[in-house]
Automatic annotation (TrEMBL):
Protein name: 2-deoxy-scyllo-inosamine dehydrogenase
Coiled-coil ranges per UniProt: none
EC number of this enzyme: 1.1.1.329
PROSITE patterns in alphabetical order: ADH_ZINC (PS00059)
Phylogenetic lineage: Bacteria, Bacillati, Actinomycetota, Actinomycetes, Kitasatosporales
Domain of life: Bacteria
Known pathway: Metabolic intermediate biosynthesis; 2-deoxystreptamine biosynthesis; 2-deoxystreptamine from D-glucose 6-phosphate: step 3/4
Protein species of origin: Streptomyces venezuelae
Co-factor(s): Zn(2+)
Keyword entries, A-Z: Metal-binding, Oxidoreductase, Zinc
Amino acid sequence: MLPPTDDLLCGRWPNGSMKAAAVMDVNKVGQVEVEIPGPELGYVLVAPTTVGICGTDLELLHGTASYVRDGRATMPHVFGHEWVGRVVAIAGNCQYSRQLQIGDRVVGQTMLSCGGCRACQRGHRNECSQLKEVGLYGQQGAAAEFIRLPAQSLTKVPPGVDDFSAALAEPAVTVLAALDKVGVFPGERVLVFGTGTMGLLAVQMARRVAGTVDVVGIDDAGIGAALRMGAEHAFLPGEARDGDYDVVIEASGAVPALLEALRVADVGGRIAAVGVPNDPLPAVDASELVLRGVTMTGVRHGLDYYERALRLFSEGVLSAKGMIADVFELADVDKAFELLERGRRAAPKVALSLTPRP
Ligand SMILES: [Zn+2]
Ligand SMILES: [Zn+2]
């Protein structure tokens, strides 16, 4: 990639070092000083203001993520894939960079595809064979004073959407992709497994299109949050009735939930799995799937749904209300992970807040 000449630089692209939060080693997070990434044509420098952390970041911390085990992510690892920030500088012709302006609030796609491989050429960017994922592998994350990203991976945040909502766009896109993939129609009965960030966003979204949305949770706090966000009935695992649902969204990542999903789906029912189970499924009676005509689909990520997710937050269909457990400064990143690790609360999301340089 070519470095731009001065007349191809909009805004002031700082150099030197910056503060970042990183997974330093297995089970150890802390603050580090790293180089500010330099300007490259077509790239934008953004100063993140809010960064959400989630179970995926915990997998990085524990060293259990596949990309840590296979060496794609190395320590110290600057994480952060759920974020919002402000455009600081653009490496490109200012006159032609009308899509983005200095100072714009933006969110960024987690998956950065190559554009040239077979999957990309067929329009399946999220199946790219050269994929990089922001904050996971191949691309520094947003828990830093600055992040450099391709201009086309950024989406402008509409004015009335606050930073917490914008940072929730990343988990929301996968929920939207799941509902889109299985199709949810007016009057249908939906069951959501899980009351974490994805589960609660699925409840918020599905209640607008389905007839009823019920939820399965494992604790009072999560179930209470789901009921406040529009779920009609709440069940503990094993309590929902067999065959009662047209659509099941599995957002807990628990293996028993996937098995229960197969039972509670009605004849012709559709199941979307967005939670990633850590263990293999025990033997499944495949005749159930065939004879009852049940469809089960895995949803990798909602790469093409960022604009829609932000619009839904802007219109109040999705909301950050009741979603944020606590917010920490970058220097207190260890406390943020401690809270996330401690487990379930009514509000599922832990966030970091960054103060932009003057
Ligand atoms: Zn996440
Ligand atoms: Zn590709």
